[in-house]
DNA sequence: AATGTTATTAACATTTGTGTCAATAGATCT
DNA sequence: AGATCTATTGACACAAATGTTAATAACATT
């Protein structure tokens, strides 16, 4: 499939690899054919963006819907985000200000709600704010891990094994945030 | 300054905004002058990358060296990463696989060591592994926040105020990870 | 098989980004 | 002022990316 080849080019060569000539050559077809299908070079990129985002959501969904223990789930989640295709996608979106639709509409919207429900159930009796904060922390950390995990690891002088264990460590830590958590209101008046 | 204009173009128009013609026009000079200074278009981008990275490190350094309370520091750290210039820089680096030098050499190396020392001091008697994990969590989360914070916030249905309070919340949570923390060894044998 | 439709191609055309060069302007030094 | 150097410019040249077109190939429908 054409978009798969384009996705590989994004992962391997960055944005500059996303031109119709090179992609067509990799696919062994004429570049005019690409234009005929997608209408324009920009249209091809938009299609790729949508496609890759859907793939990311699907992968996340598969992980988060499994009934594995928390640390395993987080390990998988972080591993997922470190895949070149996925972190390059997020970087690309960030650069192009593509904060619109795909991440907040359609299947992903349902997925997020699902996660939210699951976490809220676990922290029964507490504020939904807490669930949101915890999820936000986990996901943002996973994204940051994908974007500059290797560089950070090097800066901090972390060993290979330690970096590998970090995702599971996060999975173990998050439950601590649930225990002894003040309500959002107390929280606000604390300092 | 030329690089300041180039940086603004990166923040406003993404990577495609980083071409000598547009930058020269924004700066009101001939594009040949730009080439004369930086040698090539690629040289200009390299200079910009180095320059922006140094600026990011400097900003982070200023925050982390202040003697403000933890939650304030985290608030500032997250706010910093959400600035368009800084998160676009990281996205750019991620896309171009620019994981080399600047983040791990020179002033930033000293900065990281400084942070590591500070955290290690606070968790005296414990493994340095813990300090590294905590810093890794905070920084990766801050990066993820900068890259796709707004999109995540929207997906999770977080209110404006809650999103604003998230950085401070993180600052409050991290100390909990220090309490009752098993050593790295126990940790490894746990599951 | 005849027809209409869509996919594919090669060749050309346009636009955009990059680089070169010779001439000029400005600065510095004696 | 004269000599020398650097900075800047406009004009041109080149390369790369995108888009267009007319012809052909492949396919489906009747």
Task: Write structural notes for this entry.
- Two copies of one chain form a homodimer.
- The first copy, chain A, is an all-alpha fold and 191 residues long.
- Chain A has a domain at 53-179.
- Chain A has ten helices and no strands.
- In chain A, α1 crosses α6, α4 runs parallel beside α7 (107-122) and α5 (70-82) crosses α8.
- The first copy, chain A, is globular.
- Chains A and B meet through α6, α7, α8, α9 and α10 of A and α6, α7, α8, α9 and α10 of B.
- The structure holds a DNA duplex (30 and 30 nucleotides).
Apparent shape of chain A: globular
Enumerate how many helices of chain A there are, as a single number: 10
Residue share in helix of chain A: over 70%
Major β-sheet profile of chain A: none
| Proportion of beta-strand residues of chain A | under 5%
Poorly predicted segments of chain A: 183-191
Mean pLDDT of chain A: 84
SSE string of chain A, helices as H and strands as E:
HHHHHHHHHH
The number of distinct β-strands of chain A equals 0
Based on secondary structure, the structural category of chain A is mainly alpha
**Chains forming the largest contact:** A-B, 63 and 64 residues
**Radius of gyration of chain A (Å):** 20 Å
Quaternary status: homodimer
Kindly, what is the distance between the CA atoms of the first and last residues of chain A, rounded to a whole number of angstroms? 56 Å
């Amino acid at each position: 499939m054409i978009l798969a080849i384009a996705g590989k080019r994004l992962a391997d060569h960055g944005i500059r690899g996303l031109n119709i000539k090179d992609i067509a050559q990799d696919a062994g077809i004429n570049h005019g054919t690409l234009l005929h299908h997608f209408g324009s070079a920009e249209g091809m990129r938009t299609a790729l963006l949508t496609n890759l985002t859907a793939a990311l959501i699907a992968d996340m969904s598969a992980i988060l819907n499994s009934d594995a223990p928390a640390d395993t789930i987080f390990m998988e989640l972080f591993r997922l985000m470190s895949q070149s295709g996925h972190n390059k996608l997020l970087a690309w979106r960030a650069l192009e200000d593509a904060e619109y639709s795909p991440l907040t509409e359609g299947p992903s919207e349902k997925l997020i709600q699902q996660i939210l429900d699951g976490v809220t159930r676990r922290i029964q009796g507490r504020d939904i704010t807490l669930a949101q904060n915890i999820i936000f922390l986990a996901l943002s950390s996973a994204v940051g891990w994908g974007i500059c995990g290797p560089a950070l690891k090097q800066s901090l002088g972390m060993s290979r094994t330690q970096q590998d264990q970090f995702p599971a460590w996060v999975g173990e830590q998050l439950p601590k945030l649930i225990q002894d958590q003040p309500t959002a209101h107390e929280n606000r008046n604390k300092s």
